[in-house]
Design brief:
single chain, about 160 residues, alpha+beta, five-stranded antiparallel beta sheet, about 20% helix, globular
Length: about 160
């Protein structure tokens, strides 16, 4: 019986270790967030933790139906660090086929970063326009290790990569 308990504990520790080691691997090493300007306009936020990210998409999803609302490509691949861009207007350093304006009340939107070759993507953040109304400028809403978090931009930049 003791051997069975040890084996179960060993497997649990191994699985927990794998989860910790692969924390950023599943998302591709980037974390997506959303913020707002002083006048309440939506801003995309990406914290690239290691590998490159080439762009971002804003979409809605209901059941098996997904609709792209906005899509942006960085003019050059984004390396490690923080980047932001307007979701509702052209932004320097970004090309867009479609900006997301206006966002409809009561709709849940999802923002995620991606690579052109689909080799990796960021975590996604979900939000509604009502969530944006509650968001203070200088703060980022993102999906943390287990739940949605809202933190100052500096805290997001300092901790987002270590929490995934």
């Amino acid at each position: 019986m003791r051997q069975l308990v040890r084996r179960a504990a060993s497997v649990a520790v191994g699985v927990a270790g794998l989860v910790v080691v692969s924390g950023c691997a599943g998302s591709g090493g980037a974390v997506a967030g959303v913020s707002v300007t002083e006048d309440g306009r939506p801003v995309g936020v990406l914290m690239v933790c290691g590998q490159r990210i080439d762009g971002a998409s804003l979409y809605t999803s209901e059941g098996s139906h997904t609709e792209t609302i906005g899509e942006w490509s960085a003019t050059s691949a984004l390396g490690p660090g923080l980047t932001t861009w307007a979701l509702d207007a052209p932004s320097e350093g970004w090309e867009t086929g479609r900006s997301a304006a206006p966002l409809d009340a009561g709709i849940t939107y999802h923002l995620r970063g991606w690579t052109k070759d689909d080799s990796r993507s960021s975590t996604a953040v979900s939000f509604t326009p009502e969530d944006l109304e509650q968001l203070a400028p200088g703060h980022v809403r993102y999906y943390g290790p287990t739940s949605t978090l809202t933190v100052p931009v500096a805290e997001f930049e300092a901790t987002a990569c270590t929490k995934h």
